[in-house]
Amino acid sequence: RGTDLYFQRHDGQAVTTEDFVRAIEEANGVRLQQFRHWYSQAGTPRIRVERRYDPAARTYALMLEQDCPATPGQAQKEPFHIPVAVALLGADGQPLPLRLYGESENAAKERVLQFCEAQESFVFQDVPAEPVPSVLRGFSAPVRLELEYSDAELAFLLANDNDPFNRWEAGQRLARRLILQLVAAWQAGSELEAPTDFVEALAAVLGATGLEPAFQALVLTLPNETYLAEFMPVVDPDALHAARQYLRRHLAERLRANWLAHYRALRQTGAYRPDAEAVGRRCLRNLCLSYLMELEGDQEVLELCLDQSRKGDNMTDVLAALTALAQRSDARADEALDAFYARWQGDPLVVDKWLAVQATSRRPDTLERVQALTQHPAFTLKNPNKVYALLRSFSQANPVRFHQPDGAGYRFVGEQIARLDRLNPQVAARLAGAFNDWRRYDEDRRSEMRRALERLQNLSALSRDVREIVSKALE
């Protein structure tokens, strides 16, 4: 009824939100009046965190400030009641016992700070040395956190934090920061170099006991190029690809023994299992293989990958090996791709995977291979799944090859959209979305993408679906 929520008692009588919250307050001896701002105010709050350590007093202060951007009809917002879960990690990576100023004894090693004012400070006592804070643990509130960490602090959290969310977040922030620094170095013609502490932190994650393999795989996966491009004022696909690939090769070289040991240790014995534990083990094992396959001259690794592509007892493992092989420009990789198709050509869904693996390859000849695959018996423009597997994978999941500087990728996809529009305008319109961000690229790429869009716009028989996408992109 309106914006209010109604609950129903066991006797059928309606209970409003106010009644329900009041009952909770009375039963638990708490006040939730301010907490109701989460339901009455729009927008996502931001929390800015400053910190200060006083070695003489052995105190550590967290200064928190919150605000919420204006939204239609709500220019000013009242402070939210925000639960902020916090731990302070000592030099050994372990959480310290926490005692807030004024408390008589230490409490748990993780505290939930009840942040209710626009600005508030929380002072911890008996802190022996400056710690590294782990803030918003478990994503304790749906807010945007602004807390500046040094590279060394992020590497420390990545290697040691026992909170899964913050450990993953630290790794992603550090990897993003390093790759963008490598992009700048590549553009300046400088030598690329990865810091040792990042490599050591990932080695600590890989070698940690007690972590679920699925979580390890998630933390050890670098951010993809599409995501990283969002942080560049002018997107340079070549520099971004070169920087990320450099970091992957560097990690493969420095941690070869680690990747190989885990790949072998995670090998499944016995019958195939679809449970969560087995899925996580396969995920981590295949990630190890993908890193190892960056070592192009390593024949031992190549044989392992070829063997897995031929003898894997499940499609996950076989496709992981095939994906790694598809990055190689050599005859044995091509033979593996041909053998896979010969074996699975009768299964349309598996063939879609085969098309997508080739469309997302980083090989220099990927565009030519995709063009050839449009004439392959496995592909037809009349089947949307085939279009998505080949053409959308190429244009939206392979930025370095779609955004070739000469514009050949744009011209090819534009031609395919024009052909597809006569068969399925809705699918053609989705494919045209690959050009939506054309203004974010360098001048040469912008010009080529604009020309591709204008060629589509000038088609007399263009459908309303595609014309709408193209016209909005060119506005």
Question: How would you describe this protein?
Answer:
With 475 residues, the protein is an alpha+beta fold. Helix content is 51%, strand content 11%. It has helices at 17-28, 37-40, 151-160, 164-187, 196-207, 213-220, 225-229, 237-254, 256-265, 276-292, 299-311, 315-325, 331-344, 348-359, 366-373, 384-397, 399-402, 408-421, 425-432, 443-457, 464-474; strands spanning 6-8, 14-16, 46-54, 59-67, 82-89, 111-115, 119-124, 132-135, 144-146. A four-stranded mixed sheet has the order 7-4-3-9, with no helix packed on it. Strands 6-5-8 form a three-stranded antiparallel sheet, with helices on one face. A hairpin with a 4-residue loop joins strand 3 (46-54) and strand 4 (59-67). Helix 13 packs antiparallel against helix 14. The longest helix is centred in the middle third of the chain and has 24 residues, at 164-187. The radius of gyration is 27 Å and the shape is globular. The model has no long low-confidence stretch (mean pLDDT 93).
Short synopsis of the structure:
The protein is built from 21 helices and nine strands. The chain is α+β, with helices and mostly antiparallel strands.
